[in-house]
Amino acid sequence: MENNKYLKLLPQQKKQKWLLLLMLSSTILLLTTIASFSSSPQLLYKLHGNKYHFQQVPLFVEPKLENSPFSPIHEVPRLAYLISGSAGDGVSLKRALKVLYHPRNQYAVHLDLEATAEERMELARWVSEEKVFAEVGNVRVVVRSNLVTYRGPTMVSNTLHAAAILLKDIDDGESWDWFINLSASDYPLMTQDAQIDFFVTDILHTLFDIPRDLNFIEHTSDIGWKKDQRAKPVIIDPGLYGQQKSEIFWISEKRRLPTAYNLFTGSAWMMLSRPFLEYCLWGWDNLPRIVLMYYANFLSSPEGYFHTVICNADEFRNTTVNHDLHFISWDNPPKQHPHFLTVEDYESMIESNVPFARKFSRDDPVLDRIDSNLLGRRADGFVPGGWFTDEGNASSPLPRFNLKNTTELKPGPGARRLKRLMNSLLLADDFNSTHCKMMPVVSKTKLLRRRSPLT
């Protein structure tokens, strides 16, 4: 009887074991699925307010992560700006932000640690109390300020920091297309969305039809004198480890040029695509990190880091446009800093067809002329456009804005100038052959022979 009792229980035990195995395998399958979602370019849920939305997360292992999708051409683009400054730049930075502002764009503003705590707090207070910024929520103050040395790598790290902030927690449908780095001494020569006699949109309108993967970065492989004066010397930037700004210093030993990749150089001011910056930040390939560590000891690394990365990356080297979109007046040969622009440079700035110019002194009269003649902006106001009008009481502290009109674009004089520039760059016969072009290396022996009157 006892045996029969156990015999009767066997089917039930087998059933329980089968259920246990089924539950165990289901649990393993569930954990595997969750793990695959968390370590692949699949979409994860992310809580945002009271709603869930999808967010794509990067991989840090092979196979390579695919870039997040572009916004379609023929849709109004969105720009992301970094506007940075140092001690005494608070007023200029505020003016630049207001004149560059558009509700479709994203902004990060940064005063480095050389600025006083009072100046940085005043910037944060001003942004928080500006009604338009509070309503739209697209201006971010970098609260944890960085110490930035222009000639050192800290300027590169500050740029990457701002790009990471602008990529973080962006709602679906609001991802920006291009990142533009500016300083408080930069100023636009055309509107974001201006209304002078009729609605005009210059920068956004012109970028309407341009492929979103293009990177506007002035570059060359002909590093010339920079080889001996910047690439071979080893410098240390105290901004990497100190809290007080001080000059970089040199190490007596020099280094050889890299052979794992080719060096490129160019302008420190650029307009970079979102996929390229995702590549630099997320780093599914190790190239951006290796090059960043090399440029940590490179004099004036902002004039070489992004250029070297993009021209050595197979995915991006053919997306370059060799222009920095700036009007800058340099000495010949160029010194460390350009001339300050004045009213005497006004006509040359317009004829250049570029959207930005630098470098301006604080409240120089030429800025007022740009405001009145090119931007239609009143003192201390926003640039009027489809989303905003300053008609009526000019002294009113609050603008009248309509966020439903942010895509109402009609080209104006600035758009026509910028269109001419874009046509000259993108429709040039040699455009496809000039991406990251390697210049032939001329040996010193050949150079001497070429200069010799006997040959």
From TrEMBL:
Coiled coil ranges: none
Cell compartments where the protein resides: Membrane
Gene Ontology terms: cellular component: membrane
Superkingdom of origin organism: Eukaryota
Primary location recorded for the protein, binned into one broad class: membrane
Membrane disposition: Single-pass type II membrane protein
Pfam family, one: Branch
Keyword terms: Glycoprotein, Glycosyltransferase, Membrane, Transferase
Gene Ontology molecular functions: glucuronosyltransferase activity
PANTHER family: BETA-GLUCURONOSYLTRANSFERASE GLCAT14B-LIKE, GLYCOSYLTRANSFERASE
Protein name, UniProt field: Uncharacterized protein
